[in-house]
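Here we describe the complex-level prediction in full. Unlike the single-chain runs in Section 2.1, the two entities below were treated as one system.
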Amino acid sequence: MGKIKKETESSSRDLRKIWKIFGPAAIYLILFVVVVLRNSNFLTGGGLGISTQVSAAILMVALSQSLVLNIGSIDLSNASLSLFGAIVLAKFLPHTGVMTPLLILVLTTLCGAVNGALVAYTKAPSFALTLGTLGIFQTAALVISKATTVYVDNNDAFLGQLNNITLFSIPLIFYIGALLAIALWAFMRYTTAGRDMTAIGLNETGAIFAGLRIKRIKILAFSLAGFMSGFAGITIISQSGSASPNGLGSDLLLPGIAAAIVGGTSILGGVTNPINVVFGSLIISMIPITSTALGVNAEAQSLIYGIAIITVAAFTLSNAKKSIVK
Amino acid sequence: MNLYRSKADIESVPGTPILSLKNIKITFGDLTAVNDVSFDIHEREVVGLIGENGAGKSTLLKILAGVYKPNSGTIELAGKSVKFRNPLDSLEAGIGIVHQEQSLFTNLSIAENLEFVGEGKNKSSKIFRFFNWRKARLSAERALEQVGSKLDPRIRVGDLPFIDRQMVEIAKAMKVSTVKVQNPVIILDEPTSLLEVHETDALEREIAKIKEIGSVIFVSHRLDEVMRVCDRIVVLRDGQLVAVKKTSEVTARDLFQLMMGHEKKSEVRSYERRHQGETPKVELRGAGKKGKFSDINLRLVAGEITAIVGTNGSGREEVCKAIYGVDSFDSGSMLVDGKEVRHWSVRTAITQGFGFVPAERKVEGIIGGLSAANNISLIFSDDIKRGLFISPKKNLASAKEWFEEIDIRPRVPSKELEKFSGGNQQKVVLAKWLKSKELSVLILDHPLRGLDPGAAETVNSLIRQAAANETAVLLLGDTMEEVLDIADQIIVMKDGQATGEFDLHVDRPTTLDLLEKMV
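The structure predicted for the assembly as a whole is:
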């Protein structure tokens, strides 16, 4: 049967394959061109800079999410972990200096590992468990910040550089995100650990029978996700020089999920391409810019955002060959 | 090779057929899946449809079910040409299909499955738009009676054993197709591939029952069974009709030859014992698991094939899973190389050289979404690495060697494994283990399930080869014949207990000897 189907659909399947690889980039390009057509200043006036700057934090969170989605789980706590990381960073940066971001990455990686251990050992759904840790990280953020904005009043310059240094008007922090994405892509493709993650996401029972180290791999995936959440925290500080429980970065969870999905990550597990998640994040950040350029008024922004996500998801994710989609 | 290609060998039956296929042809792109196939089905007749995987059986059935439309050729019902636009058309014309993969809703009761959902939707069981449970139950009872089953329609389908589910499935197909039509045709697509031996008897009685009111197209890989139940047999090879034979005039050997285009290799088995007095690779001493099995004693010796026979629920699958470490024992002990093991898991089993081919291939045996190459190297991947990293090139090259060695088709190791046929998937599962240089114990749970005779032959010879290479093999077979053909030692299990043991170097048990101790 497989042989037969392949013959009939070979041409459309080739197209689908190409679309799977280049679709997200193409959509971003289209949105970009639409804005430029409406407002040519966007091209000359640093539109690329704006769009990459806005998407940098989303990218970090989306990469974190795609790692977890790939093993067939979900992490609802990653954005609040980022914010927690950002607040701790803002608090300690003035005192401990240059080493602080590294310590933050260690901290968030450990938090991720805790998430992973919970999922691996309790065998409860990650949705429920990370909903729990979301609350814990949020509370921790509130306690440490005393529910106010924490300003980095010393040593702030060098993190600010991550956002201020640009090449082709794209900020350094975005390049870092893109490099991390490439590293993750290589990790998935060229290491047994990465392949085992995909195997678990595709068929966990099969993975058990093949003797894969399920617990270890899950904890690793969540730890890497925590590591990426730490980068999101660093991005927040580099861009705003401060962190608050309600400020920049407090609403990254859903855009992060949306960017991962629009970037071709399957919510059912086993399918992701970190490089396309880069374009997924760019698309997510580009949608409000596009709708503004098209003259949509402020009240309707969320509507457009919603419709755009539905459309993009239908185009990039539609999987006609799979009859069952959750 | 092409002996039968030019002109099919057809024995026809006089009289007007109720269903006849005339010169059916269907192509998919460059591939001709079914080419110029014609045959008839008469009233109250059981017609067997056989052929290798990929011979076009499934495609032909899908044409009859209204899923595919043929490029040319006609289907005639009682002499009138018909066109099926969709599955409903075909159902209403009286063609009911019992699919290979069951289509019942396991979380609903039998009555709900027969009366309320899907194809069986029945208006009389409803008051306006509400369900009338009493009526539904009675109507379901009647439908079950028709196929000779006395099941209570209130039982949840998920709680039924497989054979009873099959009965419900047949009742459902019968029910729909007899609503409007006098002479229904029921198609049974490999109904026995998942049944245990004694259960197939029940199915055969079932077929006899259907024969009282309609006709049957019976698709199966088991030639002996086809010989028992069918009046005539249609043989397909490579999408072409090879022969239509009266059952009384052929032997299973003829059929094999017609299907494969070559003769069956007859392996003369030897009963010579090659190993004596060695420490067994694995030994169970009074091993048990509450509610599953108890007091099992077993010795797996390097180079020997040990088979466990028993019905579903005899506990033999659980014993295998516990040896492999997916399950555990809670009494008795297990010794590996003479040493008692304490912390046993799949991981430790694999490092000790154990391999396992599970029965549920799709769920347990393979990662369907990964490429065939990645499935082969899933467990032992040192040979495809360059330093710490996987080399995709080496991965493909190594897989390619296996594809050649055990003839896995198509030769595209980069393709997702779920797109290969069952037989080729099973070969990949075996390659995954055979790859290990230190495979000391190989446990096979129904390794031939759903395979056509050609693929089954390859898999069997791989099993023999493994044993010849000093692997201790533990086998749960599909049929008695398969086991008697290959095993050195047979253990019979019933209700979690070992009820018999045969050493084939000394004893020559018959199928009956084994069955006696099973039920």
